[in-house]
Amino acid sequence: MKKLFVLVSALLLISAISAHSQSFRLNGYALYALDDNIDASNGIYYFNGTIKGGLLWGFGLEYNPIRDYGLELAYYRQDADFQANYYTGETFNETFKVGINYILLGGTRYLILRKSPVEPFGGLMLGMAIIENKTPKTGAPSSETKFAWEVKAGLNIMASKQFGIKLQAQLLSAVQSYGGGLFLGTGGASAGLGTYSSMLQVGFGGGIVLRFGK
């Protein structure tokens, strides 16, 4: 709850600053994240699993000090199933319900085409992923906070100076984010199992752009 309060406060602050600036945008996102397979081992125990694909939605506030560049604070959310297999002398198969929250800050570079409604762009964002285990085992942690990054590219098709449609492809990663420590508790296969592996998801989709200011 505190993390979401900080996010909302930061978004409101950027909005207030942007209202007195040259230009800012409100971006809405709706993308499909593909399945991602994960493997990890601590030398003794081993697990693999699949984060099932699904809707990745979010929004961002972007400040544009000049037309070619933007600085954006963004929030993404994905709810997914994580199908995991654990090998600890015995084989365990579990499906966990997870919620992934991303809070990212980064820059976007626009390619301005004269007399064209199309804006090609690319960008890099850094921040954190808050991973919630909605169905944890007894004694297992219910959440983890990890470093995250995003690389994105796409097109904005501006129907007017104030409104546009966004088409975007992205690569999104939470580093060292999934493993036995987050999902297994004090009983059964949990003994000594603390492996972690990074998530790397490809997403395709789009959204909308609302532009304000000059």
Which features characterize this protein?
214 residues; mainly beta; Porin; 8-stranded antiparallel beta barrel; 10 strands; elongated
Textual characterization of the structure:
This protein has 214 residues and is mostly beta strands. The protein has one domain: Porin (Beta Barrel), CATH 2.40.160.20. The chain has helices at 2-18, 180-183, and strands at 23-33, 36-41, 46-51, 54-66, 69-87, 91-110, 118-133, 143-158, 163-179, 196-213. It has an 8-stranded antiparallel beta barrel with strand order 1-4-5-6-7-8-9-10. The chain is elongated and about 65 Å long.
Strand content: over 45%
Question: Radius of gyration in whole Å, from Cα?
Answer: 20 Å
Q: Uncertain regions: pLDDT < 50 for 5+ in a row?
A: none
Strand order of the largest sheet: 1-4-5-6-7-8-9-10
Succession of helices and strands: HEEEEEEEEEHE
Helix and strand composition category: mainly beta
Q: Distance between termini?
A: 35 Å
Overall spatial form? elongated
Mean pLDDT: 85
* Secondary-structure arrangement, i.e. CATH architecture: Beta Barrel
**Helix amount:** under 10%
Number of domains: 1
CATH topology-level name: Porin
**At the first level of CATH, what is the class?**
Mainly Beta
Task: Give a short account of the largest sheet.
Answer: 8 strands, antiparallel, barrel
Number of helices: 2
